[in-house]
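fyi for ur records
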Amino acid sequence: MDRKGVLWSNCTLADRERSCAAPVVWPATRRFRKASMFKHHYLYWQWLRRDVAGRYRGSILGLLWPILQPLTQILVFTLVFFEFMQMRWPTVGGTGTAMDYGLNVFAGLAVFNYFSEVLGRSPIAILSQPNLVTKVRFPLALLPGVTVGSALIHVLVGSVSLLLLAAVFRQLSWAALWLPVFLIPLILYGLALALFLASLGVYLRDIGQVMPAVTSLLMFLTPIFYPVTAVPDDLKPWFELNPIGWGAQAIRSVLLEGAVPSMNALCLHGAVSVGLFLLARLIFTRLEKGFADVL
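which gave:
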């Protein structure tokens, strides 16, 4: 059987190289397909578990770090922008307090850190595992997916933490049930970025060096530590197209404001994220054929 699941009958190695005999296709039964899907599903979870466990192995606080790291950033942003620069986050009752500012920044950082991790780790997702490319058969598309899954765990931890804080300092609404729906386009955006950067990073090693500057630029160009109302009106449409800014504002709306964001924006980002994911998957499949030659 070859790599594509084709069974060659009555052929020697020389015959196979000359393709003298017609291949007999292995019957792709429903049971075989389910077994293959389960195998990759199980393999993905094992690699995701390995990635998360390896990151916090030997750490005393473990999975508390996804909460402590953004909390540290929130304290710094609140001190600099709220206290020193007198920046306020507008609320329904008027000028927001330091707690209002911190909760809104927390929501923005949950989305930004997700994309930041995807951008930072995806270019080396394939490069860091050369043995899986050259020595064994392995579904390489799982590696960028593991990067996205690991980053998504931090978003979920941050969202749950924000949900608990909102329950204490705010009044929760049924709009919070919309949170999983608005996370779907963010997951697809992350998968599209991961597949594209992972495949391109094999051929262009400089991409990994550029990503830190890109993430720093995105932090200031995205309403993370400042409200979208501070953006000039003529630039707001461009900011709304930013998946990071849209995702941050969506989480703020459903968890902190108790309102459901625009369905038109959800449909737009849903359609764009699906298109980008399919395009990135196609690019990854095309470039995957040359990974072994480069590595």
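The beta strands are 6-7, 24-25, 90-91, 94-95. thats all i got for now
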